[in-house]
Amino acid sequence: MTAPIIRTDGLSKLFWVGGQQPARRRRRRRHNNGPSLRQLLPMLRYGRLAEGPDTFWALKDIDLEVKPGEVLGIVGRNGSGKSTLLKILARITDPTEGSIAVGGRVGSLLEVGTGFHPELTGRQNIFLNGTILGMRQAEIGRRFDEIVEFAEVAKFIDTPVKHYSSGMYTRLAFAVAAHLECEIMLVDEVLAVGDIHFQRRCLGKISDEIGSGRTVLFVSHNASMVLQICTRCIWLDGGRIVAEGPPHAVIESYANEGIDISGERKWSVSAAPAFPDGSVRLRGIRALDRTGAVRSAFDVKDAFSIEVAFDVVEPRHALSIHLYFRHEVAGKLFVSMDNLDSPWGRQRVPWGSYRARCEMPADFLNEGMLTIDYVICTNPTSTENVVFNDALVLTIGDDMRNEGVRGDWVREWPASMIRPRLKWHHSIAAEQDDAA
Question: In this predicted structure, what is the pLDDT of residue 193?
């Protein structure tokens, strides 16, 4: 079994919250930069800050192992301890308790641009910042042209960076950090800055590093990015690991917190959404995988179906079922209706309980959060209807296996809301065209 390249045992970090200055000292209006020695002494235990009323645990009892070449995603709310964990691994801050073992050189993309001097040129800052990050002069010189090309600042490389735009500054800072030769890379939400073009270049660079076997710890609020590049994921909440495992499962658990995400929704007779006259009422909707199991998370390569149930209390004329599919970013994606496949056509629908199923093909949807609205209306005039918005919320991910429409393409999929697998035909021309 391969030994872990990173291991933590009982890793914990305690921080001082701070407090009000005693009233009798406020007359001097001295700035309170933290606890006084008198306040701090009772809280010291064996040279470490002990727990007290004005402290909090940013991390508590983190036991973690990361294997060489693994890409570990870290998700959680703001303040859950994600950045603190990376800063301890990068040796920016020390833990209060526990132990860490790191078996390789660590490169950090935590606070892009730290160490840049505004009066120095881009060229000078590359060497300065590279040295701060732990690169040798020869290493910086060897990768200088790559850094400048990636940052797209060749024309201004000898201009002081105080004259750079924020985008140029960020690109150069990321380029320096990203070209650090190391076995372990720590990435903390750096892809949240810059324009879309820059974010794609950054993600492509990180994908290249992953492909070379580098170990990566990746913190992001972007679930799609985590699903795309990570092989394993942990969810931090309140400084503790609350879930760990495959990215799809962890992201689903994280997304479920505070949001009514599930693969199924049911209504009782008394609570069911219904036509104004009560003649038609919704009874349920659920997402089913190929085995018929209810799920709320699918891979882009998975075929699944949406099954709806409804009651017709009084016979109605020609009902039509509509499912509105919406993407978390793009909004309305498409609408599917059962008009062509309905057994009722324009006929009268008799009394009874009914089910209908809409089949979703594999290799059709792209990654992201998918919300489904459930609608039944009279057809063709649609003068009456019953609507339930956000009936289901599903997550669509990509496990990056070289199957399906992705093939062996490992970088970010070009921006789109759907990812259909269309039929391609190839041939070899026997001879060049005579006209050529």
Answer: 54
Better pLDDT: 184 or 262: 184
Check pLDDT > 50 for residue 103. Answer: yes
Token pair in block for residue 298: 């699918």
Query: What distance in Å separates the CA atoms of residue 135 and residue 203, rounded to the nearest whole number?
Result: 22
CA geometry: angle 223, 227, 232, nearest 5 deg: 115
* Rounded Cα–Cα distance for residues 265 and 306 (Å): 11
3-class state of residue 174 by DSSP: helix
- Positive or negative, the CA dihedral 283, 286, 291, 293 is negative
Eight-class DSSP state of 121: B
Residue 162, H or E segment: none
User: What are the pLDDT digits (tens) for 224-255?
Assistant: 678 778 889 999 998 999 999 988 778 767 76
Give the confidence band of 433 by pLDDT, cuts at 50, 70, 90.
low
- Is residue 303 within 8 Å of residue 290, measured between CB atoms? yes
CA distances from 282 to 285, 310, 344 (A): 8, 4, 18
| Number of other residues whose CB lies within 10 A of the CB of residue 98 | 17
How many whole angstroms separate alpha carbon 328 and alpha carbon 369? 5
The answer for residues whose C-beta is within 8 angstroms of residue 245's C-beta and 6 or more apart is: 232, 233
Left (φ > 0), alpha (ψ -120 to 50) or beta: where does 258 sit?
left
Asked whether the beta carbons of 12 and 57 are under 8 A apart, the reply is yes
CB atoms within 10 A of CB 273: 17
Q: What is the average per-residue pLDDT within 158-167?
A: 88
CB atoms near residue 238 (< 10 Å): 15
DSSP H helices, 74-195, are 82-89, 122-132, 137-151, 166-178
Kind plus residue range of the DSSP H or E element containing 156? none
- Cα gap 268→209, rounded to integer Å: 52
Show Cβ contacts of residue 337 under 8 Å, excluding neighbours closer than 6 positions. Answer: 320, 321, 322, 323
Give the Cα separation of 19 and 34 in Å (integer).
Answer: 7
Tokens at 335, concatenated: 């609408």
pTM higher than the cut 0.85: no
Spatial CA neighbour of 188 closest among 174, 198, 167: 174
Tell how strand 184-188 and strand 215-219 pair up.
parallel
Contact 126, 147 (CB under 8 A): yes
Beta bridge partners of 256: none
- The total of other beta-carbon atoms located within 10 Å of residue 265's CB is 19
Tell me if 2 sits within 8 A of 54, measured CB to CB.
no
Measured in Å, how far apart are the chain's first and last C-alpha atoms? 59
The residue count of the chain comes to: 436
